[in-house]
Fold this sequence. Notes:
The structure is a single chain. The protein is α+β, with helices and mostly antiparallel strands. 27% of the residues lie in helices and 26% in strands. It has an eight-stranded antiparallel sheet with strand order 16-17-18-19-20-21-22-23. It is globular and about 70 Å long. It starts with a helix and ends with a strand.
Amino acid sequence: xxxxxxxxxxxxxxxxxxxxxxxxxxxxxxxxxxxxxxxxxxxxxxxxxxxxxxxxxxxxxxxxxxxxxxxxxxxxxxxxxxxxxxxxxxxxxxxxxxxxxxxxxxxxxxxxxxxxxxxxxxxxxxxxxxxxxxxxxxxxxxxxxxxxxxxxxxxxxxxxxxxxxxxxxxxxxxxxxxxxxxxxxxxxxxxxxxxxxxxxxxxxxxxxxxxxxxxxxxxxxxxxxxxxxxxxxxxxxxxxxxxxxxxxxxxxxxxxxxxxxxxxxxxxxxxxxxxxxxxxxxxxxxxxxxxxxxxxxxxxxxxxxxxxxxxxxxxxxxxxxxxxxxxxxxxxxxxxxxxxxxxxxxxxxxxxxxxxxxxxxxxxxxxxxxxxxxxxxxxxxxxxxxxxxxxxxxxxxxxxxxxxxxxxxxxxxxxxxxxxxxxxxxxxxxxx
Length: 432
């Protein structure tokens, strides 16, 4: 028990360059012990598996453990498969990036102003999502009629804005153009070609062997997911898979058996201010100089992360069925695999300090606003409280693996902070 007690009481650092596999395993064990991670993880570099392991339970009521071949919902990691299907249809000459939405769904509002490219690159102006509709039992036609009434958030093509509705519409276009069900098209043209035998598209009838149940956090603790209507929640979500199948998909994306080099170039190019590719985000700002093609997902108990560091030939995927922060965990795992110093998870405890100290911490640091409101400290908005664990170190109320430490200079002034995300530290200085 001694190693666990050390993790509980003190931050411990590990390094990725030596004993990489052992350090990855140590990091994940800490995620299990401290943060109750449940799911599966796979990390590989240059074709060599560094970590492949399942943790926690696939079924809490029957105490059935997750295994490497447990199938997990992918949430928005689904989008890359929808984008691939669209690109395959483009390559076959059945549609083009410049085609208007009106060509396929003429009854959709502003359909003459939206192109396939806009749908793929999150520049259509369509709203983020339709959660209440996805949780309903309404039929597909009724859902579509209701989704059509959701207003645009901005004029198509004028800027970027993440949209599940855009990918929901892309799934409908795939069916209309191919003449096949979305699930059938993906299976024949993507999953089977990549050897992904444990991957498919969810529906509300089929029994899927070894598929994990999903649980999400409520005030009372973990509870069952609500009913999700998989006839509607498709295109942006809906695919399930295993970590091993996703590793096969990563491998397939280096070749041209499924997508040609030309189509991959389109998929992996960044578009707009937010660097959206087609079904991926390209080279996010936090990647510390390593080319990254990635996407995360989350819907109730499902939390997923899919990461391809293409220059390093590093692949990291984390799939969770109990709302563990997979994107934070994958960030830490990636840093370890790339040889960076990483802090292990540890227990954070609130302490009482004089809120007058917060006056020294307030201000703008790069793109971060530290706010003091009613004797409390906040990160960017009143929705994100910072909870003190020492005089100058705080953890975020939503996530103990994200901390902020205010660092005094030689004059005792707080002009820089250390941001820690998944154990990876970054110094950010106060804006002038």
